[in-house]
Amino acid sequence: MNRDLPETPDRHLPETPERDLRRDLYAAAAAALLVAVAAVVGAVIQHRHGTLRVNWPPLLADWEPHLGPGTPAALAVAAAVVAYGPSLTVRLPWRSLLLATWVTGMAWTWSLALVDGWHRGIAVQLTTPHEYLRVIDRFQDIPAALRGFSDHILLESPDNWPAHVAGHPPGATLTFVLLDRIGLGGGGWAGAWCITVGTTAAVAVLVAVRALTDERLARRAAPFLVLAPAAVWVGTSADGYFAAVAAWAVAFLALAVTGHRPGWAGPASGLLFGWAAYLSYGLTLFAVIAAVVLLLGSHRVRPLPFVLAGFLVAPVAFTVVGFDWWEAYRLLVTRYYQGAGGVRPYGYWVWANFACTVVMVGLATVAGLRRAGAQLVRRTEGTQVRLALLVLGALVAMLVADLSGMSKAETERIWLPFALWLLPACAFLRGSRGWLAAQAVLALLVNHLLLTGW
After folding, report:
1. Which residue in 9, 194, 261, 439 is a FRET match for 160, CA 20 to 30 A apart?
2. H/E/C letters for each residue in the chain?
């Protein structure tokens, strides 16, 4: 069968009875209530004690209704995807669909970022006192900077790193150092890099879903990956870039274990998994999603030596230079509790983090997750349950991060790489235009009513 040809209408999914739709709406309403409760309880805690360290709980944001130059474009992109997205995803050849997903996702993300204007929305996002670009000049001698990286993590250490530099392995900062070296220095280029690379994550997710399940489900998920409310943070933080690296690592692993590209996909996956571990300590939890991919693959053993060989490249290179990942992480845990992490109450954030997640993935995804759970409960077989297991892997990774206590607040940014893997659950939904409209409205409201911190 030519996989590039549009698929016939989905015959695997049963007709959706009204009862299932009501259950979808109940799930969405419960998620909306969770956000409302988190906002009210958070406001009370912050007003009385000031321990949440966010101004508009549960999000790191300020209430600031505004319009901007990106507003007309954002409205136009949203309307176009809602009106034409579901039908185009059926008709477009597969490769054209992937390109359209990336281009439209970029348009959506750029538009949302430009609601705040070029300067505030993009150019200064990575230049604030907590961000990576503030230390570019300290990497004139890159090997020396990497050898001494751990010496500047703790707050009491001399010339301690800004919060985001200290909070990540040096691969994150090194990315922007190398961009500066090739003439793409400054906040504008850094923001453009994060948006351009970050929006490819949706393409990677589609590639993985198609390889592990089938093309029908991938096509149904495509519009929801484009209009994800998470685009609000893809366009304003380096975590969008991190999300894309991790997503492509999973996508290449999916291709390798399903026998589609065994020659090069395994090493490429391993290389990206290794690099991801040096972009963010939290991305090590992608091991959970990788384990699910291996479980779903038909060629689980053959690609593993190639994946492992690729994975070792980054750890070996950084270790040879003199950076100790484990020692840096140990110091980071201390630094975390020296700052806001030591003040923010675990008892609030352990559940309010998921309110942040609802805002990030939207109510449609919550309804899709309900349907994914139903697939597992019913013990159905075939592609639907495979997709449900993939989504479950992302949920488990987020739950581990949540219980660890190292993700208290700011999870609308920190959990972005994992949240993207929840969005394919929307492939289970019927009435996609209505749910797509709900996703777009949520993103537009967040971006126009709040000034997000990232």
Report:
1. 194
2. CCCCCCCCCCCCCCCCCHHHHHHHHHHHHHHHHHHHHHHHHHHHHHHHHCCCCCCECCECEEECCCCCCCHHHHHHHHHHHHHHHHHHHHHCCHHHHHHHHHHHHHHHHHHHHHCCCHHHHHHCCCCCCCCHHHHHHHHCCHHHHHHCHHHHCCCCCCCCCCHHHHCCCHHHHHHHHHHHHCCCCCHHHHHHHHHHHHCCHHHHHHHHHHHHCCHHHHHHHHHHHHCCCCHHHHCCCCHHHHHHHHHHHHHHHHHHHCCCCCCCHHHHHHHHHHHHHCCCHHHHHHHHHHHHHHHHCCCCCCCHHHHHHHHCHHHHHHHHHCCCHHHHHHHHHHHHHHCHHHCCCHHHHHHHHHHHHHHHHCHHHHHHHHHHHHHHHCCCCCHHHHHHHHHHHHHHHHHHHHHHCCCCCCHHHHCHHHHCCCHHHHHHCCCHHHHHHHHHHHHHHHHHHEEECC
Q: What is the pLDDT of residue 11?
A: 43
| Nearest in space to 363 (alpha carbons), one of 411, 453, 434, 448 | 434
The mean-pLDDT minimum among 119-123, 251-255, 380-384 falls in 380-384
pLDDT at 5: 39
Which residue did the predictor score with more confidence, 8 or 28? 28
**Rounded to whole angstroms, what are the CA distances from 168 to 164, 326, 442?**
6, 12, 30
Q: The tokens 């959990």 sit on which residue?
A: 415
Of residues 205, 311, 319, the one with CA closest to residue 268: 311
Q: Is the pLDDT of residue 1 over 50?
A: no
In angstroms, rounded to a whole number, what is the distance separating the alpha carbons of residues 376 and 373?
5
Round to whole Å and give the CA distance between 185 and 366: 39
Query: Rounded distance, CA 55 to CA 272, Å?
Result: 36
Residue type present at position 168: H
What confidence tens digit (pLDDT) does each residue in 70-125 have? 999 999 999 999 999 999 999 999 999 999 999 999 999 999 999 999 999 999 99
Tokens 């790489």 belong to which residue?
Answer: 417
Confidence band for 443, pLDDT divided at 50, 70 and 90: very high
pLDDT given for residue 9 in this prediction: 41
Residue 257 has pLDDT above 90, yes or no: yes
